[in-house]
Amino acid sequence: MVTTRFAPSPTGDPHIGNIRTALFAYLFAKHEGGEFLLRIEDTDQKRYDEKSLQTIKDVLTWLKIEPENLENPMIQSKRLDIYKKEAMRLLEQRDAYVCNCSKERLDELRQTQAKSGKPTGYDGHCRDLNLDFKDGCVIRMKVPNEKIVFQDLIRDEVSFDPSTIDDQIILKSDGFPTYHLAHVVDDNEMQVTHVIRSEEWLPSTPKHIILNKMLGFRQVRYAHVPVILSPSGGKLSKRDGAVGILSFLHHGYLPEALINYMALLGWNPKTNEEFFTLKDLEERFDLKNVNKAGAIFDQKKLDNINRAHLLVLLGDKDRLMTLIDEQSAEFLKKIDRELPSGQSVKDVLLELIVPRIDKLDEFSNHLEIFVKKPNLDETILVFRKSTKENTLIALNEFTQKAGEIPGEDWIFDQIKALMEAVVEQKNLSNGDVFWPIRYALSGMEKSPPPEEIATILGKQETLERISRAVEALQ
């Protein structure tokens, strides 16, 4: 059975690169009918953040890509004796050795190598000294002098010359293992079959293949996914989107939209499609269609995908109400009433605003025109191709005729027909009439159509706002 894993380090909020890798591991496992597991790699105690573990779980739950062992993940810091035992086994097999090189010697070695233009790495100084393991010492793996060749599921055949692989530390002087030993031991115990991770780990893969062989473990299959790049092609920064994944939640992105977008950061569906549900992705994801080249983070594309998922969400207004900000939700509940058309104000507002936003944190801005009377600028109130005189004629005529409409007929079609009648009967242009009414009601140059705003405001509030506009012009 296929088994994949997500193995984050709890050193802060997971970012989009971490979670994109988790998503690929999840999708591959589900597509193959396998298992997706969680492991917490907390051996870097200096950077450990105790809140991070819960954040990782919360993110996976929010995105609905939950590992089978979410509530009981493997935690490396609780397994130190196991790693030490395996390191000692490698010592006994003479596949590893004790090193007592000081930090000063190693720093000097790296500086000398760098100055001479050589790759930096350990020079094997302690390799044949047969030192005893004691406090202050580390254990290094003994890399054999043989070429390493393997098939990467994304990058095809990859090979490494042994001269480029140094004798990596596998057990540190504080008793904690390095990533190299710990993850190989853990993957074996968890029966992981496929390791899906960032391409930054590609140069370390020969060491992991060697360790698997030394320990007698089954070799896993590797897939190194491309990095996510900034729009300029460089390293992704916080300004470009390299922020904690939960910030996308706080800015009003839907989890299904983020899943959809992250899948397209490297995976190619081989069609022009861009809208996918999680179920779609589980059925269609294939590592063969993951690109080798870096994926460009495109904020506009993310916004467009989120907007598409928001439109789908209009079919589930109960869920939509739980996702908009609390203040907006309370206001919608407070003003909700049945309109003459039989629709509720709440539903009409949702249908009016949601198609005009990219993400839910923009909802309150659009709702504001219904919450408070707008501040009007008389220079904007007059359409650029109109006159003050024509604007007053339009507003006064609309007010008079609107007063004659019974409350039960105060609906979109009637209000729009009334504005059209003013245009025709007073020999005015659409701009003479529609523009000042829209601005009088919203205080915005870009807003929903005036008949939609007026329907939601109600007859009395509409006429009060137009009266204020007339006063501003007089």
Automatic annotation (TrEMBL):
Originating organism: candidate division WS2 bacterium ADurb.Bin280
Cofactor note: Binds 1 zinc ion per subunit.
Motif ('KMSKS' region): 235-239
Alphabetical UniProt keywords: Aminoacyl-tRNA synthetase, ATP-binding, Cytoplasm, Ligase, Metal-binding, Nucleotide-binding, Protein biosynthesis, Zinc
UniProt cross-references to PROSITE patterns, sorted A to Z: AA_TRNA_LIGASE_I (PS00178)
Catalytic reaction equation(s): tRNA(Glu) + L-glutamate + ATP = L-glutamyl-tRNA(Glu) + AMP + diphosphate
Coiled coil residues, start to end: none
Short sequence motif named 'HIGH' region, residue ranges: 8-18
Protein name per its UniProtKB record: Glutamate--tRNA ligase
Binding positions (Zn(2+)): C99, C101, C126, D128
Principal subcellular localisation of the protein: cytoplasm
Free-text function comment from the UniProt entry: Catalyzes the attachment of glutamate to tRNA(Glu) in a two-step reaction: glutamate is first activated by ATP to form Glu-AMP and then transferred to the acceptor end of tRNA(Glu).
Assembly, per entry: Monomer.
Protein localization: Cytoplasm
Enzyme class, spelled out: ligase
GO cellular component, one term: cytoplasm
Taxonomic lineage: Bacteria, candidate division WS2
Cofactor or coenzyme needed: Zn(2+)
Any single biological process term in GO: glutamyl-tRNA aminoacylation
GO molecular function: ATP binding; glutamate-tRNA ligase activity; tRNA binding; zinc ion binding
Domain annotation Aminoacyl-tRNA synthetase class I anticodon-binding: ranges: 329-469
Similarity comment: family membership: Belongs to the class-I aminoacyl-tRNA synthetase family. Glutamate--tRNA ligase type 1 subfamily.
Binding site for ATP: K238
Transmembrane segments: none
Domain Glutamyl/glutaminyl-tRNA synthetase class Ib catalytic span(s) in chain numbering: 2-303
EC code: 6.1.1.17
